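Structure (tokenized):
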């Protein structure tokens, strides 16, 4: 696979990342953060529905877990 230089760190990255996806920087230089999805039930009675709110990890922690308590992750937690 042909490699080109990342514009940020000058390390090697696949040319396909630029030509197919339009990224001119490598995965290590990416600033994509973790997202959280929160289910929200709206409406009342027989007229209810559920919407999923997608938010940044920092926003989630501020609104839903401000004390930083341990969260149940059903076995998918990161190993330390």
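Design, position by position:
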């Amino acid at each position: 696979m042909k490699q080109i230089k990342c514009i940020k760190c000058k390390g090697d990255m696949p040319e396909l990342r630029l030509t197919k996806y339009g990224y001119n920087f490598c995965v290590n230089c990416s600033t994509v953060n973790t997202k959280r999805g929160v289910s929200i039930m709206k409406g009342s009675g027989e007229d209810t529905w559920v919407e999923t709110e997608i938010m940044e990890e920092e926003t989630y922690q501020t609104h839903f877990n401000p004390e930083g308590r341990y969260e149940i992750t059903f076995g998918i937690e990161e190993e330390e």
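Reviewer-requested clarification: Strands lie at 3-5, 12-14, 35-44, 47-56. The first strand starts at residue 3 and ends at 5.
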